[in-house]
């Protein structure tokens, strides 16, 4: 199996944090989004991970070499921003006949048993993983008949289906999938100038290919500050860890306090992530993500995200601060 990971994109909804790093390298619950995703993919023992990157590709490559040196990876730059289907199509030179392929987009962390893929796909050509949602109007949805996808509708006005596509796709015939991608691109099958995967899948469905839509257990959005904090809460429920140096401090679980963190005279938690090198003094922090090498003093934080090396002094309640910032607020 080959795995394609499109990680290009500006991550504008996560600014200021994506001004200085690739969006998949934003931290949540003590790890980067990409690290959470790769750990979930390791069960597949894939032959190769194919990253489709933008100008931040060197950050992705350096991260993978540092954290997952044993995995075979290749990196392809998407020079023209022509949409997600175009990004996936750039992996074609890495695909050979007989390959199957998993496509994983990086705005979300998924919770599902990928070890069941071959069983789930035993009587069909591919899987378009889905999650039932209430706000179906915000998503592309799969329309199912007798367990098989018969249509896909982008942001429907009526509840024709509540099974939203979650950005996780499996194709048994990777070479055939690449041919369909090329057909869609050659036909100019765009929406507002960009190529999207549902149009490709509908070509395949019209030609008689069969897709199922297995539902995942959890769909954790990391694309906006508020949803990143929601994901932080979910993941900390599964992974409470406190390895820092605490003095006169109360910890309310669940939290992630990394080794190398120093906290003095503070109340931390619930749902707080403190990355290595951070120092917290005389502060109350709840529902927040504090990245590496920050210094927080005399602060009362909730629903906040601080980038790397932020120095914050004062009593704000809610902050969203990028890397290397200095904020001083007089009491």
TrEMBL record:
InterPro entries: Mannose-1P_guanyltransferase, NTP_transferase_dom, Nucleotide-diphossugar_trans. SUPFAM superfamilies: Nucleotide-diphospho-sugar transferases. GO terms for molecular function: transferase activity. Residues 4-237 form the Nucleotidyl transferase domain. Keywords: Transferase. This is Nucleotidyltransferase. It comes from Syntrophotalea acetylenica (Pelobacter acetylenicus).
